[in-house]
Amino acid sequence: MNNSVRNTARLIGAGLRALLVLTVVCGVLYPLAVTGIAQALFNGKANGSEIKDKSGQVVGSSLIGQTYNLPKQNPDDPEEAAKPDLKWFQPRPSNGLGSNSANQQYSLILSGATNKAADNPDLVKLVEDAKAAVIADNTTASYTVKPGDVPADAVTSSGSGLDPNISPAYARLQVHRVAEQNGLDVEQVEKLVERNTENRTLGFMGEPRVNVLELNTALKALAQS
To answer: Quick check: 114 and 151 in contact, CB under 8 A?
Structure first.
């Protein structure tokens, strides 16, 4: 009986010592080491790929898309449709999985797409309405947008619904409208788009892209100067 009690006590003691060692190693030392390496070698990514304006204020993450809409006339009305603020470059449509009461910057609860088939009448109407809006919003006194000029990413949401990038074609389509709204020369805004266009990763992966938040941050600095 005494041997049984002693064996049990030894097992409990060994288990507690193992718990203590593993807690220190896995719960303290390992997280500190990983955090230290991440902060030293990948500081920007480890802190959320933050984008700052010229004053140093964080305006968002380069990994998450944002909307650029006018304030609602009636904030308490959930049925009131958001209207884009046309002085900014607009991102892809956000057709996600619902409304988000915590963060109104993007109308999503979860990352995801509509999962509607290409011939779904609701999806077809969304695309047609979005195309008409893109043509109307971006046609100016000196520039007419033709239906064939509208790229696919201007009228469809991404698989995640949170895509922070648009195609260079969609960015260029918005140049005349953005220039007019901000009192800038078209050539100035075109150069801004060129400077903020990223090529394919390693020269062959993905497609050329423009980060909307980075572009609008640069636009704000240009307009203020």
So the answer is: no
